Amino acid sequence: EFPSAGSVFKRPLGSFAGKLIEDCGLKGMSVGGAAVSEKHAGFIINKGGATSDDIKKLIDIIKNTVYCRTGIMLECEIKFIG
Questions:
Q1: pTM exceeding the 0.85 threshold for the entire prediction
Q2: pLDDT digits (tens, 9 = 90+) for 64-74
Q3: How is the chain split into domains, by residue range?
Q4: Which fold has domain 4-70?
């Protein structure tokens, strides 16, 4: 439905990134045109006009929220170039 780069985070030991993100209530959260997918919380989708800065900010929010609520630090699977 919307373009994405696929799975954003590596699977943390003993859990799934998407489940942790969903359990933290982050499905649908957006920054600019970037949003956490409603279908799979481990994906960030481009709802239109998302910039790399939007995506980086959303990733930071996700990582910080998941860490504060679970003690698990998510690690990015995607690599930013430039």
A1: yes
A2: 999 999 999 99
A3: 4-70
A4: 3.90.78
